[in-house]
Every structure is written in C-alpha cells, then in structure tokens.
Write the structure tokens for this entry.
Amino acid sequence: IFATNREFKDTIIENHINKLREFDEYFPPNESFSIMTNTTLQSYPFVSKNFEYALGLDRQKMETKGLPYWFSQIHPNDLAIWMNILEDLMMFTMTQVKKEDRERLSFTWNYRVKNNKGEYLNLLEHQTPTYFDDYGKPVIAIAHCTIVGKEENKPIIAIAKMLNERNEYETLFHKNYSQKLLTTSSISKREQDVIRLLALNKTSKEIAE
C-alpha cells in the first residue's frame, strides 16, 4: 500500500477531466461510458453521462461515494477475482515493466456489474494509466467501459499491453482467471498478437515485421 495522496489541480489530470467533460456533451446515449479512477483517494473524479444510460445507476453517487459504491455493484463472485487481477497487474507493472515504459501501458479486464433493475451485466473495461506517483505506481487512470452482454457466464480475463517502438500494442500479460486449465494454453502472448493483427487485415509481411 502506498500512502500517496496528491491533488491533481493544475496538472495534466485536470486537463484530461476538462476534455472528458467537453466530449461528454456530444456523445450520444450508448452502452459505453468513461470513468476516471483515483486509487489513492478511492474516488472517481469523472463519470460520463452514459454511466446512467448503460446501467441506470446514479452518477452522483458514483462520484461522491467512490469505490465502496462501485464495489457494491460488482457481482459477489467476481469481486474477489477482480481484486486478485488488480494485485497481479500491479505486481507485474512494478516488477516487470521499466518505470519509463509504464506510461505506455494499457490494461483490460471484464466482470459483471448490477444495473438499477438488479440485473447483472457483463462489462469490459479498458484502462489507461495517466498519472504516476514517485515510485512509478499508476494511481490515476482513465477507463472506457462497455456493456457486452447479460449475465451469461464469461471467462474473466486480464490483459496488459504496451505500445512498442512501432506504436503498436504488444501483449505482455494475459491470464484467464475463470478457467485455470486455459492459463497453460499453448497459445503464447506473441501468437495472440499475431491473431489480433490478422483481425486488423495486416499482411504476413507486416505481421512478421
């Protein structure tokens, strides 16, 4: 646990929040929403309006009550797994990624959240760290969340990617937390990147490079 507790006034974070608020005025209602997370204060300095459209939850409560309110909406069976994911990704970041490279990381995971009707929906979260403490620990991040289905059972998967020198995402960490047998899958992280590039219609030569 780090004791970092910094204000972000007059920093790049304040600029991010202002720009997110500006964009939010123009985004049409849809199943995707953005949130900014401050882990040291356990708060959400910004929650986009589509949070209410996608989940029917109170955006003001999300901003004022912070992490405890969001935790209460996560499926009980998924919450402990998600906490394990956060711990694993943080340990991976702090021990396996150089400090100067951490700002190029991007994290993805999924879990189920409860809407205002008491229904659990599958949510995919793509989080990009935007602010780091003196130790290089990501403490503030912007997350883009999308509802990707009802309560059907989906494997909970965590991924860490980093923009490489070619400005392309490269998978550094991939773990399936729901089906342990798949964690030893013969598909390597490199092969997963090849599959992703194939889906982007890259040629064999481009993928090889």
In short: The radius of gyration is 18 Å.
